Amino acid sequence: MPPEVLKEAQKEFLDYHGSGMSVMELNHRSVLFNQIVAEAKEDLKDLLHIPDNYKILFLQGGASLQFAAIPMNLMKKRKAGFIITGHWAKRAFEEARMYGEVVELASSSDKNYSYIPDCKNLSISDDFDYVHICENNTIYGTQYKELPETNGVDIVSDILSKPIDVSQYALLFAGAQKNMGPAGVTIVIIRNDLIRDDVLMGTPFVMRYKEQADNDSRFNTPSCYGLYMCGKVFQWLRKLGGLSAIKEMNEMKAKMLYDYLDKSRLFHGTAAREFRSIMNVTFTTGNDNLDMEFVEDSKKHGFVSVKGHRFVGGLRASLYNAIPIENVKALVNYMKTFEMLHG
Ligand SMILES: Cc1ncc(COP(=O)(O)O)c(C=O)c1O
Question: 327 phi and psi, to 5 degrees?
Answer without folding.
Answer: -65, -35
